[in-house]
Write a structure and sequence with these properties.
elongated; three-stranded mixed beta sheet; alpha+beta; 66 residues; two-stranded antiparallel sheet
């Protein structure tokens, strides 16, 4: 069994995406302080992908007529 923390993906447009940044941040259990995983920090490409996904979703959420 590996002692490596589990990789925690972020969700963009309903799909788990690992991110494109090589920078990672530990995720800790606040009750125990133990490391329970790692998440890749977002870079500009990740932010752009999220922004595009939000724009697509907004088209469906906005009413076209009243």
């Amino acid at each position: 069994m590996s002692n490596q923390p589990a990789e925690i993906a972020r969700y963009i447009h309903g799909r788990a995406t690992p991110g494109t940044s090589s920078r990672k941040q530990n995720v800790t259990n606040p009750a125990t302080g133990s490391i329970i995983g790692q998440v890749a920090l977002a870079n500009a490409a990740d932010v752009d992908a999220r922004r595009e996904s939000m724009a697509e979703g907004a088209e469906f959420a906005m009413p076209t007529s009243r």
